[in-house]
Structures are given as C-alpha cells and as structure tokens.
Amino acid sequence: MVRRARQSLLTLALAVATLSACSIGQKAQRPAWRTQAENACLAERRVNPSEYIALAPEVDGPGICGLTKPFKVAALQGGAVAFNATATLDCSMVAELDAWLADTVQPAAQARFGQQIVQINSMGSYACRGMNNQRWAQLSEHAFGNALDIGGFVLADGREITLVRDWGRGDAQTRAFLMDVHRGSCGHFSTVLSPGSNAFHYNHIHVDLAMHGRSGRSICKPEPQETLPPPDPSPLMAQRRAPPPGAEEETDNDTTGKPPLAAFEGGRDGFGPVAGPDAYARPPPPPLPPRRDGIGQLIDDSDQTSSIGRRRRL
Question: Would you list the DSSP string of 127-178?
Fold first, then answer.
C-alpha cells in the first residue's frame, strides 16, 4: 500500500512539472477589452495628438500591466489646463478627462470663484500596482493607465485648492466647489472615490473607467450631495450698469416729492392709518384774535378776510 501511494505521488509530481515546463515562457495576457477600447478610441479620433498630448510607445509589463497605445499628457483643454507632472493615460481616459473639465470642473469654478482652473495637481496616473498600493491586492486601474488621482486644482489667480485641506476645512464656496466636482465626476467615470469613501482616499479624488462586471454598474463614494447655488451677482451688476431712461421712456421715479394718490388707498396697512393727501397740504392760516375798541368792548368783525388783508397792508 505504501509503495503504491509513493508511486502515485511521484506520478502526480511529474505531471505538475510537465505542465509547469509547458507554461514557461508564456506571458499572461491583458484582457482583450482593454486593447479593443484603446483602438476604438483612436479610430473615433476622440483624442487628437498635439504639443500637449503625445502618443507614446507601448508600455508592456511587468505582467499584464501596461498600455498598447499610451498617451503622455502635459495639459488638457488645448493647453489651458496643465498637469503638475506629465501623466501617462490611455485614450479613453484622456478623452473623458477633457470632457469632464468642460462639463463639470470649469463651470463649477466659474460659478464659485468667477475664474477658471488652470492646473490639475495629479497624485498618480499609470503605475503597475495593486489597489490602494497594497502588494497582494487586485490590480488597480492605474496599472492600465485607466485612472487618475487628483490631489487638487490651481485657479487662474494662483490660488491652490487641495483635497486634504479644503474638502472638510475650506471656506463655504471652496467646499461647495469640491462637492460639485465630486458629484459631476460620477456622471463621467465608472469609479469615483473621494475623501470619506475610505481611509486610502483622504487626500485625493480617484477617477477611472473600470468595467464593473457585465452590468456596467458604477461606484461613486461618498454619496454625492447637492450644494446651495452660488450667490448670483447679476441683479446687482444690472442695477449698477443700467443706463438712465431716455426722455421718451416712462419712468416710475417721483419728481414731485410727494407720494402718488394710490399710496393712500386701502385704509390701514397693518402699522396704523395710512396718511391721506391732506397730510401733505399746506395748513390754513390760524384765525385772528378778537379786536377791542378803545374802552375794551369787542368789535364785531365778521369779515376777517378783509381785516387780514387790511392789517397785512399796514
């Protein structure tokens, strides 16, 4: 029995060794959909190479990491929005980041600050690593150039917005801007992880275009929140810039110094009686005191008006 068992183990070991020898020299392959997505993006001309976006040689490995047709990106939006460091990204990510800037980031910056974003401070693009930089974790989308970590932004006036500081401790408009960016990102990318999603993303927003199963579901954490709209300065600006009405135009400006008659209609207004037109009329002159003759007798002067006239003429 023991002899037969040893022979069985030896046979199994030889079979394993044979299979291992056959696999030597065979490299693991990247999922086919990744290369297909790169080729489709290029065929559709979703990214046009320029002085800011250059097609680079294939990144092949280690392992299944890499990109067939990577782009080196120094800036987006035709050079208007620079990266703090050149990013290595696949075609789909370059195209989606450009659309995200136009649809989400710049409108939010203009509304909150009255100016544009001129720089993205990246914390990482392509890197052959596991999720959350964990050695034994599943490969991150960064390993395929299909992700970007965003640590902050720079405004046109030089002001820097950082996730680690401003997500929870920035002023009201800066926090609202970052909430707007997070919410809008969830409409562009299949994965969005911002501060509050987990301990690993306390200082950046991670965005990628991962394929989450056949259902095409998306991951957006934390739950997006609606923000109050920014103050609208347009009414005040319109009031300041409005030209004076022309001579032929009707105007409700009062030039008499007295309120119109309509203001006196309606009785009480809740704060006491409404003053009528008589309140603004000149009061009549007080009556003259009675006159007396030389011995102190009262003089009957029924025509005080003529007396007033006589006395005023004296």
Answer: ---BGGG-TTSPBPGGGGT-EEEEEEEEETTS-EEEHHHHHHHS-HHHHHHH
d(CA 104, CA 121): 17
Based on its alpha-carbon atoms, the radius of gyration of the chain, rounded to whole angstroms, reads 41
State the burial class of residue 107 (Cβ atoms within 10 Å of its Cβ: 0-12, 13-18, 19+): middle
Task: Determine the Cα angle at 93 with ends 109 and 33, to 5°.
Answer: 155
The pair of three-digit structure tokens given for residue 288, joined into one six-digit string: 């003259």
Q: What is the DSSP letter of 298?
A: B
Structure tokens at 24: 């030597």
Residue ranges per domain, the chain? 29-221
| Concatenated DSSP letters of 213-271 | TTTTB-EEES-----PPPP--HHHHHHHHPPPPPTTS-----SSSS--GGGGTTSB-SS
Q: Which tens digit of pLDDT belongs to each residue from 214-255?
A: 767 899 999 998 887 776 655 433 333 333 333 333 323 333
pTM score: 0.66
